[in-house]
Amino acid sequence: MKKFMAVVEYDGTNYHGWQLQKDLPTIQGSIESALGRILKSPTRVHGAGRTDAGVHAVSQVAHFSADWAHSLAELRTGCNALLPADIVVRYLDRAADDFHARHSARSKTYQYQVLNVPLRSPVQRLYAWHIPYQLEVSLMNVAASYLIGSHDFAAFGSATDGTPSTIREVLEARWDIAVNEGITRFSIRATGFLRYMVRSIVGTIIMVGKGKITPKEFRDILVSCDRSRSGPTGPPHGLCLVSVDYDDFLICNGNFTTMTTSKT
């Protein structure tokens, strides 16, 4: 058996998340079905991040093991021919025997898009949360700065399977404005995430942007570890997995980059 690594892009609109669910369409299920038809045997696929229902990805990393004697190009082409139009394998390569898409990752980066203009956009309706009210992005960035470091994020999410601790380390967190697009974008990079963590953080920081709470009050919510104190959870369609970082390479916006310099 050989181990393979794949980089997958998908529009999560029509799926109940990455992880297999009985009688429900999922990303993992679609890929396993395609591989099963090609390889003529059940094939388990493991992902770097278990994105929730409606969440998108341009850099989901996955691995699987298979007996395959033909070229990588043939395997990728065959898989994409069987996958629905909203899922594609962008990159496929052999992987080291000890590689694990999730456990080998050093960090992951998610981006959340807010369409901050008066009128809604039919084109952006599946990829950005429309908020027609003016947001104070400078205050939102003050609040985001309190996320940096190792904290107990229980106020913003629940523990994931196999990792009961709610302590995570956030390496970067910031809001940027794409003026010509009307998009206000939140980027967060961390060694790991709780379930609903990014969307809950976004919903609570939006309260800062609207002037409903102060950055200090946001920090108090973080420190409290009390889920009931956080704001509304942002809708899933604004969230996208954009980057996964490993010791020797980086997957960013679907592209594979070998790391040639030391990391900090």
What brief labels describe this structure?
264 residues, alpha+beta, Alpha-Beta Plaits, 2 domains, twelve-stranded mixed β-sheet, 5 helices, 12 strands, 30% strand, globular
Structure explained in plain terms:
By secondary structure, this protein is α+β, with helices and mostly antiparallel strands. The protein has 5 helices and 12 strands. It has helices at 27-39, 72-82, 137-145, 197-209, 215-224; strands at residues 2-10, 46-47, 56-66, 87-94, 107-115, 129-130, 149-152, 167-178, 183-190, 239-245, 249-252, 255-258. Strand 2 (46-47) and strand 3 (56-66) form a beta hairpin. The model has no long low-confidence stretch (mean pLDDT 95).
Please tell me the total number of domains: 2
CATH fold description of the largest domain: Alpha-Beta Plaits
Count of individual beta strands:
12
Task: Enumerate the spans where pLDDT stays under 50 for 5 or more consecutive residues.
Answer: none
Number of DSSP helical runs: 5
User: What would you call the shape?
Assistant: globular
Fraction of residues in H or I helices: 10-25%
- Beta-strand portion reads 25-35%
> What is the H/E order?
EHEEHEEEHEEEHHEEE
Could you tell me how far the N terminus lies from the C terminus, measured between alpha carbons in angstroms? 35 Å
Provide the gyration radius in Å.
19 Å
Tell me the name of the CATH class of the largest domain.
Answer: Alpha Beta
